[in-house]
Amino acid sequence: MGKINKEWMVLFLIFLIVLGSRLYFAFQTPFFNDEAYLNYRLIHHISDTGKPLNYDMLSYNGRDVIISPVFHYILAFFGFFMPLDLALKLIPNIFISLLVFLVYRLSYALIEEKNLSMLLALLSGFVPIVFSEILNNISIYSLVLPLVFYLLYLLIKIREKNNIIKFVSFSFFLGILHPSSFVFLITLIFFIVLMVSESIPIEKIKKEILSFSLLLILFVQFLIYKKAFLVHGFGVIRNNVPVQVLATYFNFSFIETVLKVGILLIIFGLIGIAFGWAKKREDVMILSSLILSILLLLWFKFLKDEVGLMFIGVALVVISGLSFKIFLKYLDKTKFSKYKNSVTLFSVLILISSLVIPSFLDASKNIQEHTPTEYEILVLNWIKDNALPDVTILAPLNKGHLITALAGKRNVIDDNFLLAPDTSERFKDVQMIYSTKSEVRALDLINKHNVDYILVPIESEIEFGNVRWLDDENCFEGIFFGTPKVYKVLC
Description:
five-stranded mixed beta sheet; Rossmann fold; single chain; 22 helices; mainly alpha; 2 domains
C-alpha cells in the first residue's frame, strides 16, 4: 500500500509541475489567443442562455453553425463554481495535464518499468507543440488528446475487467465530442492493416470491439455533421477551408516537426518503433497505427499540422520508453556500467532540457504573438460601446472571432469555415481590400460586404504595407491610429 501511495504521490507531483508550468504562462495575460475566441463566445452563449449557438447572426453576416457543443457545455458547467473566464484558463490546462497519468499507464503497459514510466509521464507534459498549442487557446484538444490515448490504453488492456464497456463508452463520447474521432477511426483501420500485413492474429474479442467502434463513430459523426456532408460533399474533409488558405492551413514540413516535437524524442521514438515491429509487438502496432494515420492525414492535407504533431509527439514519448529501456540494458554490458547512475542522470537531464526549454520558449512566443494587446482590447470595447448594433467590421481572417466575441459586431470572415458561405471568394475579397492600391476597387468590395468599419492590425500592414486610400477623408474617418488602426466608412 505504501509503494502504491508513493507511486501516485510522485505522479501527482509531476502533474502539479506540468500544470503549474502551464498556468504560469497562461496567467501572464488576462486574455486568450485570437483563435480561442470562437470557443469563448460559444461557451459564454451556453452559460447565458443554456442553449448552444445554432445560428450565428454575427459570423459571415449570419450563417448556420454546426459544432458539437459537448466540450462547451462541460466548460460552461464549471462556470457555476468559479468565474467563467477563470474556468476557461484553468480547466483546459487541467485536462491536458491529466495526460501525465495516461502516459504513465500506457508506458508501464509497454515497458513494465515504474521509474522509467514516471520519466516518460514527465516528458509528456513538455512536448513543445502540446505545451504551447493548448496553453491559452480554450482548445478542445485538451480533452480529445487524453481521451484518445486513454482509448489506446484500453485497447491494449481490453481483457481487463470492465475495459470493453469503457472502450465502447469512451469511443461514443469521443464521437460526439469532436470530428477528430475520425483520427481514432483511421488509427483502428491502420492497426488492422498492420496486424494482417505482419501476419499477427487479432483476438476475436478485439475484432468485435474494433468493428463495433468503427461503426459507432461513423454513425455518430454522420448524425451530427450530416448537413455539412450534404452541403460540402467531400470538401467537408478539409473543413471547407478556402483554397487560398490551404497551403498555410495545412503546412506540414519535416523541419517544423523536429522543432515542435523535439529531435531526441523523434530519434528514440523511431528506434522504439523499429524494435517493436521487429518483435511484432501488438502494443507498439497500436501506437504506430496512430502515428501512421496522422502522417497520412498530414500528407494529404486533411489535418492541420499543429493538431497532427500533438498526437505524434505524445505517441513518440510512450514508444521511446522501449529505446530508453534498451539503452539502460546495453549500458549494463559496457565498461560504463559502474557509472550507470551518473550516465543515466546526465542523459535524463539532457532529454528533459531538450523538451522543457523549447516548450517554455514557444509558450512565451505564443503568448506574445497570438494574444490581443490591451490596446487592441480597448479598441474592440470602444466599437462595442459606440458603434451601432448591426454594423459590420472588416478584419483579417485571424481577427474575425475577436470582432464577434469582444466587439459583439458582425464580421466578414473568420476561420469557422464549416457551413460558411463562399469562403474562398470572401477570403479573396478581404485580401484584395487590404492589398489593392485602387480606392474604387476597394469601395466596390466594401459595399459588396456592407462594411461599416475597417480594422487594420499590424499584421496586415506588415504583409501588404500601408493602405493609402484610407487617407481619403471624404470616404473614411480615422478613429484609432495606433495598433490596430480603425476607420469608419463614410461613402
